[in-house]
Design a protein that fits this description.
Layout: H1 4-11, E1 17-20, H2 25-36, E2 40-44, H3 61-72, E3 73-74, E4 80-86, E5 89-96, E6 105-106, E7 109-114, E8 117-120, H4 123-133, H5 153-167, H6 175-181
Parallel strand pairs: 1-2
Antiparallel strand pairs: 2-5, 3-6, 4-5, 6-7, 7-8
């Protein structure tokens, strides 16, 4: 019967599993990437090909690693770390949950997990994750690059017509007043 560790290793690296031979900055990047997506596990002491190499641990190794993650991430991430023995070797399994507050950064860089690798997030991805966390969208922010002359009254009238037809409601105001009344213009 396969152990949970063997099942994880047999899955190979992917969207939610990362193998590392030792604790290094790439481990924290993976933790951040998992926290910014759907969560995942980092197995330290396992090669990229899935060979169990084990890892040397001192008395305070796990606490030191947790502190490094906490001190170098913003907002701070404190992952669960557990030691698992296999083939008389120690493997550290880091369990990372999807973080509710996004995006998380490591030394001011933001990572996201795609397939079996970590990627630096684009400015657009960072902004969108931030807005999702605030349960907001770009629609809630004032566009300072355009003015009233850029508005197509024809399109606004078409939109109002669709609303009137669908909800059997009529608007007595002109299109600009309707936009202002419903908070589309400030």
């Amino acid at each position: 019967m396969l152990t949970i560790l063997q099942k994880l290793i047999n899955q190979g690296e992917g969207q939610s599993i990362e193998f590392k031979t030792s604790f290094q900055k790439e481990v924290i990047e993976a933790i951040v990437a998992f926290a910014n997506t759907k969560g995942g596990k980092v197995l330290i002491g396992v090669s990229d090909s899935g060979d169990i190499l084990g890892v040397q641990l001192g008395k305070e190794s796990l606490q030191s690693w947790i502190n490094q993650v906490k001190q170098n991430t913003s907002p701070s991430v404190i992952p669960d770390m557990n030691i698992v023995k296999s083939e008389n070797k120690k493997i550290v399994v880091i369990d990372v949950k999807e973080y509710p507050i996004k995006p998380i950064s490591y030394k001011n860089r933001y990572f996201i997990r795609r397939a079996n690798s970590n990627h630096v997030m684009s400015m657009e991805e960072i902004a969108n994750e931030y807005l999702k966390t605030k349960n907001s969208s770009w629609d809630h922010y004032t566009d300072t690059t355009h003015n009233f002359n850029d508005i197509s009254l024809e399109k606004v009238e078409h939109f109002i017509g669709k609303i009137e037809k669908r909800f059997t409601r009529t608007f007595d105001d002109n299109p600009m007043q309707v936009l202002q009344k419903y908070g589309f213009l400030s």
